[in-house]
Design a protein that fits this description.
The chain is an alpha/beta fold. 37% of the residues lie in helices and 20% in strands. It contains 14 helices and 15 strands. It has an eight-stranded mixed barrel with strand order 7-8-10-11-12-13-14-15, surrounded by four helices. A two-stranded antiparallel ribbon has the order 1-4. A two-stranded antiparallel ribbon has the order 2-3. The longest helix is centred in the middle third of the chain and has 19 residues, at 131-149. The protein is globular, with a radius of gyration of 20 Å. The N and C termini lie far apart (52 Å). Bound molecules: guanosine-5'-monophosphate (G) and manganese (II) ion.
Length: 319
């Protein structure tokens, strides 16, 4: 059950798996090579959870087009043809009564110009080892956005960027991001990287090294989708986290079930006593807003305040 891949590179020695065994590559698919990155053979041998196993290693291989239900989304093509876009969703500060940050959310346009949602392509990009380059492009686009719009002059202090756990486990991530920030001459304090709890248990050592190197420059970190996945309050203690983003499933039931209420209250209480900022995600209506208003929450995000929107719309509305 080996995935079909075609090798189109100039390697002289056979590729090997983690045990050093050469692995088979079947002809007829496309594989691209880029300096610095290799996807692990696990992906190709169809391991049950390729998302976890598609580690990024030292050498240099990446896969090219991606197919979803037989349709070619071709992230590589999208990347090359500049069909990757970043949308921005405003984040409201309760204390300051204004929008003080935004979350960057990646979109891809298909050949017809229709938007493809990340739910459809992120997982595939991860499994195919494309996420590193996609993530780098997103990071570039955000840096460009920050620089061109002088965001801080408009009170938008930082932009949050989601990291895939594969990016977190990529040894060169920090070096590459630092280089890009220099290139665009942006202040690292205007960047907050969102990691998920799953990332914090997977390849923890590399993640912590990346975090340390980036934090030395001034980049900060947020824990995304908090309360789902492998929740452990220990993550907050072990990780140098600035912001906790409470998953939107909690605000969805706030005021309806006691657990959600208690959870949001507890996280807010804990966070405020250790100097971590809390952001509640997914605020969609006034009644939810009323419910969370008296909890010690600093930041609010959701459709009630603004949907993720194209750069032009974000500029018109907030800049
Ligand atoms: O995992 P993460 O929290 O980064 O997910 C962000 C996603 O949540 C985006 O795709 C965004 O469109 C979506 N989103 C943002 N605000 C809301 C909201 O108020 N309600 C719902 N249902 N989704 C939201
Ligand atoms: Mn996020």
């Amino acid at each position: 059950d080996i995935e079909t891949v075609v090798l189109d590179h100039g390697f002289s020695s056979p590729l090997t798996d983690h045990t050093g065994e050469p692995f088979r590559l079947i002809e007829q698919a496309v594989m691209e090579t880029f300096p610095g990155v290799k996807t692990s053979p696990y992906v190709m041998t169809g391991a049950s959870d390729s998302r976890f196993l598609s580690r990024v290693c030292d050498n240099c291989i990446r896969f090219a087009p991606i197919y979803i239900n037989g349709q070619q989304y071709g992230s590589i093509h999208a990347l090359n043809e500049k069909r990757v876009e970043v949308f921005y969703q405003p984040i409201f500060s309760v204390k300051e009564k204004k929008f003080t940050s935004a979350e960057a959310l990646v979109r891809i346009r298909d050949e017809k110009g229709e938007l493809v949602s990340p739910a459809e392509f992120i997982e595939v990009a991860e499994a195919k080892g494309l996420i590193i380059r996609l993530g780098e492009e997103v990071f570039r686009l955000v840096c460009k956005f920050i620089k061109e719009n002088k965001l801080t002059e408009y009170g938008i202090e930082y932009v949050e960027i989601n990291l895939s756990m594969i990016q977190c486990a990529y040894e060169n991530l920090a070096t590459e991001f630092i280089q890009i920030m220099k290139e665009y001459e942006i202040d690292p304090k205007t960047i907050v990287l969102e990691i998920t709890e799953s990332a914090s248990i997977y390849e923890k050592k590399v993640l912590l090294q990346n975090m340390k190197a980036l934090m030395n420059e001034g980049v900060r970190f947020a824990l995304d989708d908090f309360g789902t996945g492998y929740s452990s309050l220990n993550h907050i203690r072990e990780m140098p986290i600035d912001v906790i983003k409470i998953d939107r499933c909690f605000v969805e039931h706030v005021g309806e079930d006691d657990f959600s209420d208690a959870f949001v209250r507890m996280v807010a209480e804990l966070a405020s006593s250790i100097g971590v900022t809390v952001c509640v995600e997914g605020v969609e209506n006034k009644s939810q807003l009323e419910m969370i208003r008296e909890m010690k929450i600093r930041l609010l995000q959701g459709y009630l305040f603004g949907r993720p929107m194209k750069i032009e719309d974000f500029e018109k509305k907030y800049l």
